[in-house]
Amino acid sequence: MASSILTLISFIISFTLYLVSTSAITPAAPPGPIPGPLPGYGPIETNGKKYAYVCDPARFTALNLDVKTFSYCNTTLPFSARVKDLVGRMTLQEKVLQLGDYAQGAPRIGLPVYKWWSEALHGISTVGQGPRTSPSHATYFGDVVPGATSFPTPLLSAASFNETLWNQLAQVVSTEGRAMYNLGHTFLTFWSPNINIARDPRWGRILETPGEDPFVVGRYSVNFVRGLQDVPGRVVPPNLNERPLKVSACCKHYGAYDVDQWFGIQRITNDARVAEQDMVESFNYPFEMCVKEGDVSSVMCSYNKVNGIPACADTKLMSQTIRGDWKLHGYIVSDCDSVEVMHDAQQWLGDTPEESVMRAMRAGLDLDCGSYYTDHTVAAVQQGKVRESDVDNALTNLYTVLMRVGFFDNLLEYQKLGTESICTKENIELAAEAARQGIVLLKNDNSSLPFNNMTHSHIAVVGPHANSSKPMLGNYAGVPCRYITPLQALSADARVEFDLGCDVWCHNQAAKDHAKQLAMTTDATIIFGGIDLDVEAEAHDRWDLNLPPDQITFITEVAEAAKGPVVLVLFSGGGLDVTFAKNNSKINAILWAGYPGNDGGKAISDVIYGRQNPAGRLPITWYPSQYTEILPMTSMKFRPVEELGYPGRTYKFYDGPVVYPFGFGLSYTQFTYNLSLPQNSSVVDVKLGPDQKCLAVEYKPNTQVPPSACAAVKIADTNCNQSINLDLRVTNAGKVDGSHVIIVYAKPPQYIAGAPIKKVIAFQRALLKVGQTQYVQISVNVCDALGLVDKSAYQILASGQYTIEIENGDIVANVTLPVNFN
Ligand SMILES: *[C@@H]1O[C@H](CO)[C@@H](O)[C@H](O)[C@H]1NC(C)=O
Ligand SMILES: *[C@@H]1O[C@H](CO)[C@@H](O)[C@H](O)[C@H]1NC(C)=O
Ligand SMILES: *[C@@H]1O[C@H](CO)[C@@H](O)[C@H](O)[C@H]1NC(C)=O
Ligand SMILES: *[C@@H]1O[C@H](CO)[C@@H](O)[C@H](O)[C@H]1NC(C)=O
Ligand SMILES: *[C@@H]1O[C@H](CO)[C@@H](O)[C@H](O)[C@H]1NC(C)=O
Ligand SMILES: *[C@@H]1O[C@H](CO)[C@@H](O)[C@H](O)[C@H]1NC(C)=O
Ligand SMILES: *[C@@H]1O[C@H](CO)[C@@H](O)[C@H](O)[C@H]1NC(C)=O
Ligand SMILES: *[C@@H]1O[C@H](CO)[C@@H](O)[C@H](O)[C@H]1NC(C)=O
Ligand SMILES: *[C@@H]1O[C@H](CO)[C@@H](O)[C@H](O)[C@H]1NC(C)=O
Ligand SMILES: *[C@@H]1O[C@H](CO)[C@@H](O)[C@H](O)[C@H]1NC(C)=O
């Protein structure tokens, strides 16, 4: 019965380094010389032969060069000295040929081609055009690498709220990437993850993101980036520019980018009008975490303008913020063809091509995905618009990263990885596990789920996604190891009657009647509905949040006809207004399965037949479709705009009706909570310095404000070293074991104008056996948790009564916490 385990979970949300434990996935360093994984394969091609690394002496000999005379190949020197030597050897013409994603190399000095553009959003992807001038891509599948593990798209993995999973998943992706590199199937710089905030529910790329909350997105990015980049045991050398990288990650798209193609508004010309408050509090927040806590080695600037300036030509965004304030150790790359876009589509400032190059490079853009730098930089230098030292600076940032990933020497840890490291049983199992952990149970009337194979032994499996394979991968996919479709997986649990009934648009009537027939004659019906890349995609935002109308009719008719219980499984990235199904008593259960990856069908069947107790929680708000009728996608403000009647955005600023709220998800068991503050930290007393200034705070009209000598202080001026400690006991009070996601919010004093309704300050996923009570200690820094961003974009801490609460749709536990200054 009740066993109680004491678990100490502490959250330290501070901008210090986050250390990742070493993992069994990383193989030990092999002894001996450098063989390369298979004879005849290798990432670097020189005179028709393949080599494992640039500084292979045999490679230099093949070029009639002596490697000993090139100190950029001298491994006893620091990377900084080696890069200086390399860049110093190049002529201006040679330098400029290395500034595009297809870096053409300089055989004269032993430098080979490097293809910068690869992607690894949820597995090694085929996206990444690589060379514009030759047919082969930076990443390709075929011969010895027919496929790689395809994880769920990030929004579904994000729904697990499991930081360990996010990190492990990325470790597997980078192991497969490194193995593919050894086999000459990809390079080492992956332009992932996508960490733009899902600000508007219509955005076509929400599936690629970890959701709408800046803190959750930030934690996802830190874990994912560390999973891709960190070499265990070599995480913190004194100089982070010398830190080796397993592969290089890239946080994108910076900044304030989340309009793709909406009623004629194009991402390449959109001018995002953004208040500095929203920039600091929301748009930039995950990027700041990605750079400072994730120590990412690259950031990509976006196509759009921010307040009139193209992001890739914005000195404040790039040089001052990313490099200056956040101290990036790495390079800045443009979204593909952004520099050309500045000139052609935006015709920004009426610049010549050389002037566009000048603005981008002087603002801090190191690499142009495209050929605009390559085509125009020599002339820009000749015209005196770009200094050769600016070019050297960009190349130094670029080659330092290529030194760190071992392009020149190879990394001992990863030399032996080959085909046997790709699509392993364990990797494929982790892809299924990510989907299982992320799937969200939205409705479960009368505990209709889980099914069991005795009473639900003959089932109807219908609907557009009932046998989906490729659609399970979403976008930025590679070639998967295999597929396990819903139909295939469920066929192991029951005798299945199958008919798609219709596709996502459901225009075709023919098969509908047969699907209804099957529902009428079986124990239970599972309808696989939702949307796909036809509805939401890059360069394609949505019109509304409904399912296609004919699909709604189909689902309703099949449910009406069904003899047994009906389960609706939804595939989507962005939220869906499924009020019709939520309200329909014939539809007993609803599951959201995102785009669940190559083994998605397996994960879904595990949830339906109870081998997995669902614990995923929505990482975005599911709004009613009317929301999109009262608010243009281009209004960038998070707070409501009263004079225009615009509601707020995300759970932090929107408190109108929802279909399902941010953070919502049911379980097959019940959890109870007991939350308290330890006696010695039930009040926060912040000591002010002798000369510290107090700030005024704007209050909501007609609210009672308790008197206070000091309304607020600037966090930058405050010694904010206290933490909030919470004592939380969670009990599994139901009948099955299950994981549970605890999401902790802080609510600022109600009378402060413009403050968020609430914000996530911590989250933790915990596994609880039936009857088990877990003691969860949560500790967060006061200023990180309770700080606000004021209208002038200052981070402030206000005095007053805060509420700390735990929610799952409703408030399930809360405590109040006064903050005083003295
Ligand atoms: C490599 O650099 C070290 C340190 O400067 C130097 O002592 C050594 O001679 C160099 N090796 C070669 C082959 O030049
Ligand atoms: C299911 O639960 C609803 C209330 O939520 C109840 O009205 C209905 O009778 C139940 N149906 C069955 C089959 O138990
Ligand atoms: C039915 O489910 C039970 C319990 O999960 C399992 O032990 C059994 O093997 C299943 N039977 C079939 C035919 O799948
Ligand atoms: C289901 O999809 C798989 C994979 O695409 C395919 O091989 C199989 O034929 C499909 N099954 C049916 C019944 O259509
Ligand atoms: C759904 O049910 C709610 C609550 O019963 C009701 O207010 C709403 O009008 C219903 N909506 C639809 C579209 O049926
Ligand atoms: C909650 O915990 C407190 C302190 O540990 C205890 O006194 C109280 O009885 C608990 N309440 C419930 C409902 O378990
Ligand atoms: C509060 O008391 C606990 C237990 O005695 C102790 O571990 C903790 O350090 C104290 N915290 C503060 C802020 O004094
Ligand atoms: C916080 O800082 C003050 C002043 O530097 C110091 O006296 C105090 O011990 C610190 N408290 C903690 C918990 O670090
Ligand atoms: C989090 O994910 C890891 C990796 O899959 C898993 O081992 C662990 O059990 C998960 N934690 C919970 C509480 O579900
Ligand atoms: C949360 O706090 C409010 C008042 O502060 C109280 O009315 C409510 O019952 C609390 N909710 C829970 C679940 O404790």
UniProtKB/TrEMBL annotation:
SMART domains the record matches: Fn3_like
GO process annotations (BP): arabinan catabolic process; xylan catabolic process
Domain Fibronectin type III-like span(s) in chain numbering: 740-810
InterPro entries from the UniProt entry: BXL (IPR044993), Fn3-like (IPR026891), GH (IPR017853), Glyco_hydro_3_C (IPR002772), Glyco_hydro_3_C_sf (IPR036881), Glyco_hydro_3_N (IPR001764), Glyco_hydro_3_N_sf (IPR036962), Ig-like_fold (IPR013783)
A GO MF label: alpha-L-arabinofuranosidase activity
Keyword Protease applies: no
Gene3D superfamilies from the UniProt entry: Glycoside hydrolase family 3 C-terminal domain, Glycoside hydrolase, family 3, N-terminal domain, Immunoglobulins
SUPFAM superfamilies with a match to the protein in the record: (Trans)glycosidases, Beta-D-glucan exohydrolase, C-terminal domain
Alphabetical keyword list: Glycosidase, Hydrolase, Signal
Domain of life from the UniProt record: Eukaryota
Pfam families, A to Z: Fn3-like, Glyco_hydro_3, Glyco_hydro_3_C
Tagged with keyword Signal: yes
The name this protein goes by in its record: Fibronectin type III-like domain-containing protein
The organism of origin for this protein: Dioscorea zingiberensis
